[in-house]
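Module 6 notes. Inverse folding takes a fixed backbone as the condition and produces residue identities as the prediction. Think of it as a translation problem where the source language is geometry and the target language is the twenty amino acids. Below is one complete input and output pair. Work through it position by position during the lab.
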């Protein structure tokens, strides 16, 4: 007997240790850019410094090939046929005390998957990446005590039974997920910066 995943949401998480010089270089660029533009306000309904909509004076050329190799591994692992793709854009999010990211998706006409790289992250003090369940199944089961005894909120295999799931991650993790999957970041309570690099992966026409 084989247990198959039906209508499964595929998420790829793997730790990528960047070369020390590459990591140092991009962190220095982001820090300089943040200090220059940190007073800029975001059009999003949240409180995070992001270079998504502008002021993105960062050279990502050393990082792109590394992340591209991971996407290729991911696409093979989920049985996708060979295809042409491109990284639609890359940006960083810089979180400090009081920062948060609202519930949102990256859904667009061309974006198939999105991804986040945890460049500077301490799971002991930084808020996790939270994903939200798109199915309404959990609404029926969530109030039942018998269900609560059977399923764990911290087990990703049980995530379909709950409204949200906090992804456990470590510094250096690269996470790929469908662009349509809602996600966000709760308010940070630490002064230590939480820095991530995000991107959208689109199909080439």
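Target side of the pair, the amino acids:
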């Amino acid at each position: 007997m084989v247990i198959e995943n039906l209508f499964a949401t595929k998420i790829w998480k793997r730790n990528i240790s960047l070369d020390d010089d590459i990591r140092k270089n991009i962190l220095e660029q982001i820090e300089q850019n943040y200090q220059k533009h940190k007073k800029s306000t975001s059009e999003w309904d949240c409180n995070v410094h992001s270079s998504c909509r502008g002021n993105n004076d960062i050279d990502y050329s050393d990082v792109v090939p590394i992340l591209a190799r991971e996407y290729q591994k991911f696409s093979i692992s989920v049985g996708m046929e060979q295809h042409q793709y491109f990284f639609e854009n890359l940006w960083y999010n810089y979180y400090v005390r009081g920062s948060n990211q609202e519930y949102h998706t990256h859904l667009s006409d061309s974006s198939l998957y999105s991804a986040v790289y945890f460049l500077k992250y301490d799971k002991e003090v930084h808020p996790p990446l939270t994903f939200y369940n798109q199915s309404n199944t959990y609404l029926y089961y969530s109030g039942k005590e018998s269900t609560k005894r059977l399923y764990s909120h911290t087990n990703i295999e049980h995530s379909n039974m709950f409204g949200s799931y906090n992804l456990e991650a470590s510094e250096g993790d690269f996470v790929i997920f469908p662009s349509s999957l809602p996600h966000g970041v709760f308010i940070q309570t630490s002064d230590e910066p939480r820095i991530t690099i995000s991107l959208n992966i689109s199909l080439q026409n």
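Reference fact for the lab report: The mean pLDDT is 91.
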